[in-house]
Write a structure and sequence with these properties.
Blueprint (H helix, E strand, L loop, with lengths): L15 E4 L2 E5 L3 E7 L5 H12 L9 E4 L4 E7 L2 E7 L5 H9 L4 E4 L4 E7 L3 H6 L16 E6 L2 E9 L2 E7 L3 H13 L6
Antiparallel strand pairs: 1-2, 2-8, 3-6, 3-7, 4-5, 5-6, 8-11, 9-10, 10-11
């Protein structure tokens, strides 16, 4: 029997393209772990997170950021968050559980999602064409996060800077999602 070796690949193989000042790039080297609080254990989990990262549990619709492992906690629902952090290897759940112990329930989500960053002065204009939520900074300021739909794809959108957005969508339709984002970027007026 022949020896086989599996090699992990990013869903978009490191895609990175500058569209006349709007950069669309796959995010790699980060892990994504779902953290859920057990019934009655909310306070213990929140205290463990604060002790580890020095940040609080985010409110639904917002995120908190720690420089420790460039960890961002995404508040997607009341008793569950996503932790997106700088960890390129396997065993992301082990990293979290080593820090938080049995304070929560953890599920590795890394291989389920494609992560894109769309950035540049007209990134919001491009995304508004395919995203039904109001992305104006007054309504969706840096740190805001929500679930939405973009061109029939379920997505999570995070505003991680004034002109920068992180998009997460199902890995199984990564190429189709990328095409929708690129088509929207290509169809805006890039003149300043």
């Amino acid at each position: 029997m022949a020896d086989s070796t599996l090699i992990a690949e990013n869903p978009l193989r490191g895609f990175d393209r500058n569209h006349a000042g709007i950069v669309v790039a796959e995010i790699s080297g980060f892990s994504l772990v779902s953290i859920a609080s057990p019934l009655g254990g909310e306070d213990a989990l929140r205290a463990a997170i604060h002790s580890w990262l020095g940040i609080s549990w985010p409110q639904v619709g917002s995120s908190t950021f720690s420089r420790k492992d460039k960890t961002r906690l995404l508040g997607l629902q009341r008793d569950q968050i996503f932790a997106m952090f700088d960890h390129p290897g396997d065993h992301a759940v082990r990293v979290i559980s080593n820090q938080l112990g049995e304070a929560g329930y953890y599920t590795d989500q890394t291989d389920s999602w494609v992560m894109l960053r769309v950035s540049g002065a007209k990134s919001r204009t491009a995304l508004e064409r395919i995203c039904p939520i109001d992305l104006d900074p007054k309504a969706f300021s840096p740190g805001a996060v929500t679930r939405t739909v973009m061109e029939h794809h379920g997505a999570i959108i995070l505003r991680d800077g004034q002109n920068s957005f992180v998009l997460l969508s199902a890995r199984s339709s990564a190429r189709s999602f990328l095409r929708a984002v690129e088509r929207s970027v290509d169809n805006i007026d890039h003149r300043v």
